[in-house]
Amino acid sequence: MAKAIHDEIVSVHKMAIKKWGIVGGGIMGMTLAHRLAQLGHSVSLFEAAPNLGGLASPWKMGEVEWDKFYHVILLSDLKTREMLDEIGLKDKVEWVETKTGFYVDGKLYSMSNSVEFLKFPVLNIFDKFRLGLTILVASKIRNWRKLEKIPVTSWLRKWSGKTTLTKIWLPLLRAKLGESYQRTSAVFIWATIQRLYGARKSGLKKEMFGYVPGGYKKIIEAFENKLTEQEIKVKKMCAAKEVRVSANGKPIISFENNSIEEFDEVIVTLPSGIASCLCKGLTEAEIKKLNGIEYLGVICVAVLLNKSISPFYITNITDSSVPFTGVIEMSALVDKKYLAGRTLIYLPKYVNSDDPMFSRSDEDLKSYFVNSFKKMYPDLRDENIEFAGVAKAKHVITVAKLNYSELLPGIKTTIPGVSIINTSHIKDGTLNVNETIKVAESKLEELLQP
Ligand SMILES: Cc1cc2nc3c(=O)[nH]c(=O)nc-3n(C[C@H](O)[C@H](O)[C@H](O)COP(=O)(O)OP(=O)(O)OC[C@H]3O[C@@H](n4cnc5c(N)ncnc54)[C@H](O)[C@@H]3O)c2cc1C
After folding, report:
1. Do both 316 and 259 map to the same domain?
2. Mean pLDDT confidence for 93-102
3. Dist. CA 53 → ligand 1 center (Å)
4. N or C: which end of the chain has fewer CB within 10 A?
5. 192 to 102, 163, 187, 358: CA distances (angstroms)
């Protein structure tokens, strides 16, 4: 947080030091806890899992421990980098130039520079010009609110034309959003292009992605140490069961272990539909708004190999026969010395949070994904695969529907002292840690108002 903003918030609110309870120990809850403690407040942070981190948590894949879901840091992720500085990890970030691939009609193409783009055989030169123009136009737009009123497919058809929409954009939109793309506004593609274009703006128009050796596990550990230094009470394996107002008018959290704690203010950082069930005493209108926020979840198969498969960090897939959205070759970014010499691949698939895929067994999903993966890379043999595991999360990305910002509930609920802040409040960006921190910080002023 910039010092000037910090000082202004402190000077305005210094008289009102309060006791805060925060539900959810992901990046959102941790950032809010950190900033409130910096302002002198007394903060308790409650996390249901044995460790903090939520979607950014690690897991073990054989002898390798790395993020359960893939994470990179971009040069343009200024909020994330500021946070890394505060927790003492800024100088640990390793920046790497990465390459991008495209898998179209059963063939793999490199799309990492202008020459490769011009050679890409799927589009003719006129379509390529329009595709390049689409990206340029999106990168220059500042007023995203106008785009909220336009369906993403209409906007892309206008700038890229029908062929590129059908051959490139629609498969990519389906891969990332499932059938929800039909309800999505042009803000989605604008925000995606802004983020990726931002990554190329610095330096020589090259993609520079970063990571901290040890992955997000190291970041979460350093962040937790910071919270402890700030005397924040971090309580893990402490699942909130209910948030409501006590007889004396103060918000209380009751927990699965049947304990109850009272605060001046409570912030719930869980996905909107879950928050609406947790908080007792919301109005019908609030419940309707919270439940109206549509989430996509992710099913992500991680694979460890004893050989590399490509030079690409991301391979985008426009082939509808492949069950996953893309191939993320983490070890094309992360030095293999941090991965016990292995190649680490993620195969993500984004689906609605109520998709029947979530009820399929891990074994079934694993063989479905891995069989397709082997077809994509025919040189791959069973003996090359040392580990395959399935990670799932039902509430990850909110669908940026038409007029999304107008559909969002405010953060302060009608329950006295109870606020709900989560990543659904990212109105003009994609889901990532940088935007999560930005939302937390941008809501501080409003949270602190009586
Ligand atoms: C597949 C994937 C890829 C990603 N890639 C990137 C990337 O490359 N770069 C990037 O910057 N970001 C990336 N992200 C996004 C990043 O992980 C999120 O922006 C961030 O982790 C969101 O944090 P959060 O705190 O809002 O949510 P969460 O992480 O979901 O945190 C919510 C927390 O609440 C806890 N909780 C739930 N119920 C209760 C309860 N009843 N009581 C107490 N606690 C409870 C949960 O256990 C969890 O820890 C990716 C995410 C995914 C899923």
Report:
1. no
2. 93
3. 7
4. C
5. 17, 21, 8, 26
Which structural domain, as residue segments, surrounds residue 341? 87-97+208-214+295-398
Atom 20 of ligand 1, nearest CA residue: 433
Q: What is the pLDDT of residue 207?
A: 65
Q: Are strands 94-97 and 208-211 parallel, antiparallel or unpaired?
A: antiparallel
210 lines ligand 1 (CB under 6 A): no
- Report the CATH number at residue 9: 3.50.50.60
Rg (CA), the chain: 22
Q: Which residue has the tokens 């791959």?
A: 380
pLDDT over threshold 50, residue 153: yes
Closest approach atom of ligand 1 to CA 80: 11
Number of domains into which the chain is organized: 3
Query: Per DSSP, what are the bridge partners of residue 209?
Result: 74, 96
Q: Find where tokens 């350093």 sit.
A: 222
Atom of ligand 1 nearest to the CA of 274: 38
Clarify whether residues 93 and 10 are in a common domain.
no
| Cβ of 433 below 6 Å from ligand 1 | yes
pLDDT for residue 236 is more than 60:
yes
User: What pLDDT, on a 0 to 100 scale, did the predictor assign at position 203?
Assistant: 47
Same-domain pairing of 299 and 314: yes
- 55 C-beta closer than 6 A to ligand 1: yes
- Matching residue, tokens 């993966």: 373
Cα 55 to averaged position of ligand 1 atoms, centre (Å): 3
pTM over 0.90: yes
> Ligand 1 atom closest to Cα of 241?
41
Surface-to-core class of residue 450, CB atoms within 10 Å of its CB (0-12 exposed, 13-18 middle, 19+ buried): exposed
Task: State whether 304 and 285 are in the same domain.
Answer: no
